């Protein structure tokens, strides 16, 4: 019985243990299901939040889109108004353009009329120049006659002379343009051609004339020059530089030593020292304000003019044919073509500017050369690279420039001008003026740094240059030695 009870109790315990295990398993299953449900619940909540965020973003985007649409509508309305305003402006511009075209047509007609008047004026000017030349010749004849009469009166020589012709209203020699090639005596020229009058009222009493550094040389003739006879009419040459002496100037003294003729003229405020060398006919004129002229009566005459900036630094102007050469103490060199307005400007750094003008346009073509490189500025403002070697700046008259062996040379039909590009030569240059079919030429050496000019008449004999110094010496400038 006890065994049976024990057996039943063990069976009961086993059943209870089995039930407990089943409940434990069910609890674990329940816990697992609960965790799964909670996890899904969290996922659902997250999805709900994401949907809410997307909804808010969609609402914001819709609001922004509505604002952008409203902005575009406003811009479209503004653009429409601007288009209408532009149409009105275009209509006004069309009216203005039509008016300008009418004005342009009227100006063309006016220009044609002015050109016709200009041609008529040119014809009248040619007639006036012809008359002026006749009057000038009469004036020269009168001066020559008066000069001979005065000299014959001094030497008690009585001859029957022609009756003087009444003088013309002016005694200045016109150049190729009908103007005096230089300013009146007492006028100082600046480096750009501007003129400033000298106040002669401040000059009181005699002024000591300072010597000017100019030397003149001439090659010896095959035959000796005959001595000058002051009583011989044919021996008296025209005095070109006397045209720069006022008519009211009084001759205070006159001297001739067989080589040079010297005259001194005075006005109440000015003093003039004129001289001429008989052998070569070169004239000089020194004014008390230190203006200096030299005229070389060559086949192509050369006129040298020195206007002082200070007593030691002078601007030098040389006129040959239709070319005016300006040299300044700053070592800038300029060549102006008076017949075409073309010009060449050379800086102290040897940078060269060539200006080409044309009747068709007021804007020039500018060529700039620096070393072996060059560039051209066309009339429309565009730039073009050009060669800087060989013959450059070729003009219609056949002149051109060539740079080689530290020397810049300008070739012209009547002269050559050579300038050293070496800075040790102080910007000095040499001008050679030639005679046609002759072995003679005129040589002008200039040092702008020391304001020295040396003029030589040169003759080739047996392929060698023969020179004879008349006055001055080369020691006055180390660059010309």
List keywords for this structure.
single chain, 481 residues, alpha+beta, lipopolysaccharide transport protein A fold, 2 domains, 14-stranded antiparallel sheet, nine-stranded mixed sheet, 1 helix, 32% helix, elongated
Short description, anyone?
The chain has one helix at 2-154, and strands spanning 187-189, 195-197, 214-218, 250-256, 260-266, 271-277, 283-287, 292-296, 302-308, 314-320, 323-327, 333-337, 343-346, 352-358, 361-370, 373-377, 383-387, 400-404, 407-411, 415-420, 429-434, 440-447, 452-461, 464-466, 469-471. The protein has 481 residues and is of the alpha+beta class.
General description of the model:
With 481 residues, the chain is an alpha+beta fold. It folds into 2 domains: 1-165; 213-480, lipopolysaccharide transport protein A fold (Sandwich). It is 32% helix and 30% strand. The strands form 3 sheets. It has a 14-stranded antiparallel β-sheet with strand order 4-5-6-7-8-9-10-11-12-13-14-15-16-17, with no helix packed on it. Strands 3, 18, 19, 20, 21, 22, 23, 24 and 25 form a 9-stranded mixed β-sheet that branches. The chain has a two-stranded antiparallel sheet with strand order 1-2. β10 (314-320) and β11 form a beta hairpin. The N and C termini lie far apart (164 Å). The model is unreliable at 157-237 (pLDDT under 50).
**Mean pLDDT across residues:** 78
Q: What is the radius of gyration computed over CA atoms, rounded to a whole number of angstroms? A: 50 Å
Helix/strand structural class: alpha+beta
Shape: elongated
Low-pLDDT parts are: 157-237
The total of beta strands comes to: 25
Region (Disordered): 157-206
Keywords: Coiled coil
Protein name: Apoptosis-stimulating of p53 protein 1
Organism: Panagrellus redivivus (Microworm)
